[in-house]
Amino acid sequence: MHHDTDTQDIQDTIAAIATPPGQGGVGIVRLSGPDAKRIGLAMFRATSPAFRDFTPRMLHHGAILDAQGSPIDEALAVLMPGPRSYTGEDVLELHCHGSSAVLREVLDATLALGARLAERGEFTRRAFLNGRLDLSQAEAVAELIAAPDRAAAHLARTRLAGLLGERVRALRTRLEHLRAALCVAVDFPEDEVDCLAPEDFLSGVRAVMAEVRGLLTSHERTRAFREGAVVVLAGPVNAGKSSLLNALLGRERAIVSDTPGTTRDWLEESISLDGLPVRLVDTAGLRETADAVELEGVRRSRELLERADLVLLVLDGGQPADPAALALAHEVGPQRLLLVMNKIDLAPELPDEPGEGIALPRPHPPGGDAPLDPRSSGADRPECVEGRPVLAAENMKMRGDRGELFPPAAGGILPLPALPVSARTGAGIEALTATLRRRLAEAAGGEPQAGELAPNVRQAQAMRQALDELEALALDIEAAVPYDLLSVRLETACMRLGEITGEIAPQDVLNAVFDTFCIGK
Ligand SMILES: Nc1nc2c(c(=O)[nH]1)N(C=O)[C@@H](CNc1ccc(C(=O)N[C@@H](CCC(=O)O)C(=O)O)cc1)CN2
Ligand SMILES: Nc1nc2c(ncn2[C@@H]2O[C@H](COP(=O)(O)OP(=O)(O)OP(=O)(O)O)[C@@H](O)[C@H]2O)c(=O)[nH]1
Ligand SMILES: [Mg+2]
């Protein structure tokens, strides 16, 4: 690998607190660079009287001293001499008590001895510049640290192992071979032995394109697992959307009240559904309103609906499903819709067993544009218990054979089953999270596979650019464009692939990557 290195920069010895701020059992100050050992020897007083120098990669017990020679902390110190270290340079780690104040003092002592503060991602940048990691691995380090959940951590770990980089380098090599063959054909047109036939050229290019497409599919497929799936809680005012958000979150995050229109602006919280990160968004209830603020809230709700991976349409079990909810269900479509009927605690006696309750005509299958099932006049409806809303009792007896509810709507029932829940008592919440998890994984095209090579956004972008170039190239070959004009496209495609692993990485690409890191990484 060769990179534009700033030699001035790399002469510096950098230092940073490597552990997160706050109280911790242990906190680490890390140094990397030519002076790491000298600084370590100056500020560390080993407990063992026999100590003369750091034994490579061995922990030494002792005291950390400040610039005046007074002890700041009792600590463990380790020197990992380059090139067998994380950065490839001499690395010194001081494992201190995990107190922000102590760590700050220790860091100050390293600075007093000539170290300078590390920039974001500078340790990993040095590891990259010294060939310890390729760029796709360096990015995986940051992604692993930021992984919202274990599926995301797993995808990052696979990339950290370097497998994506290997695949991309292999693809680039194949393109380089094609390019070499092209050049031979151009330089020695009479030499028939080495001349690459257009069919072979084309099939070579197409094979690479197919592999790049496969990697891009994996990028799309794993998006929800890497970034979190967006689930939007929507529905009529007062249905209990905010209550449901709180119930799913396990704490009282959103304001709940019986005043319709309580939630005026959306709010987002993250939850984990068995390894799948979910961004849960509560929205303003949909209703006709003249209030300017609420109107804006409703407008934002609609915007959010478009970005949702799944819409949780929350219905109030104590109310008839209003036409707006019905319209919303149609608008969103069965693919992205999950209906829940809230407030089932209002129902006097919900049948225990699925299939019990009132027999209903089977609703039309989801997705069909068929009209809603008309309901009977209601002569056979059960009496309601005093004090409970009539509709609550009625709504909640409409069970399908799997325990689903088919909410009544004006002139019929909704063509989709609703999951019965109570945000108040927690009934049905577990079943809801299980269904959510399953639906989201299905929508994503299944769980990430073990060892799946999923490129990140930057890498996918570079792959798309490479693919565009190769597509144009394939058309050119088919159109019998002379070989000497094709080489440029191949070169561009190779460059785009090279940016993924960093063999070709202009300074601005590197800056963009390492600026996303935290200090101390
Ligand atoms: N204390 C501590 N824990 C840490 C790190 C660290 O820097 N310090 N890491 C930082 O991200 C991660 C581990 N990654 C590392 C990767 C390579 C080497 C390293 O020194 N490799 C050498 C030597 C291997 C050996 O001992 O034989 C090499 O590969 O040649 C160290 C850490 C997570 N845990
Ligand atoms: N009985 C019962 N009441 C509930 C349940 N969930 C919510 N409520 C009540 O319904 C009312 C509305 O709840 P919210 O969570 O504020 O409803 P919302 O859909 O967020 O309402 P807006 O933000 O106004 O659109 C409150 O009085 C809640 O206490 C439930 O499961 N059972
Ligand atoms: Mg609300």
TrEMBL record:
Cofactor note: Binds 1 potassium ion per subunit.
GO cellular component labels: cytosol
Binding site for Mg(2+): S242, T263
Cofactor field: K(+)
Alphabetical UniProt keywords: Cytoplasm, GTP-binding, Hydrolase, Magnesium, Metal-binding, Nucleotide-binding, Potassium, tRNA processing
SUPFAM superfamilies registered for this protein in UniProt: P-loop containing nucleoside triphosphate hydrolases
Biological process terms in GO annotation: tRNA methylation; tRNA wobble uridine modification
UniProt-listed InterPro entries: G_TrmE, GTP-bd, GTP-bd_TrmE_N, GTPase_MnmE, MnmE_dom2, MnmE_helical, P-loop_NTPase, Small_GTP-bd
Its EC number(s): 3.6.-.-
Region of interest (Disordered), ranges: 350-383
A single GO molecular function term of this UniProt record: GTP binding
Domain TrmE-type G: 228-441
Gene3D superfamilies assigned: P-loop containing nucleotide triphosphate hydrolases, Probable tRNA modification gtpase trme, domain 1, tRNA modification GTPase MnmE domain 2
Sequence positions that bind (6S)-5-formyl-5,6,7,8-tetrahydrofolate: R30, E93, R132, K521
Annotated GTP binding sites: 238-243, 257-263, 282-285, 422-424
Location of this chain's protein in the cell: Cytoplasm
Highest taxon, organism lineage: Bacteria
NCBIfam families in the cross-refs: mnmE_trmE_thdF (TIGR00450), small_GTP (TIGR00231)
Assembly notes: Homodimer. Heterotetramer of two MnmE and two MnmG subunits.
Function comment: Exhibits a very high intrinsic GTPase hydrolysis rate. Involved in the addition of a carboxymethylaminomethyl (cmnm) group at the wobble position (U34) of certain tRNAs, forming tRNA-cmnm(5)s(2)U34.
Family, similarity comment: Belongs to the TRAFAC class TrmE-Era-EngA-EngB-Septin-like GTPase superfamily. TrmE GTPase family.
Listed name of the protein: tRNA modification GTPase MnmE
Organism: Desulfocurvibacter africanus subsp. africanus str. Walvis Bay
Taxonomic lineage: Bacteria, Pseudomonadati, Thermodesulfobacteriota, Desulfovibrionia, Desulfovibrionales
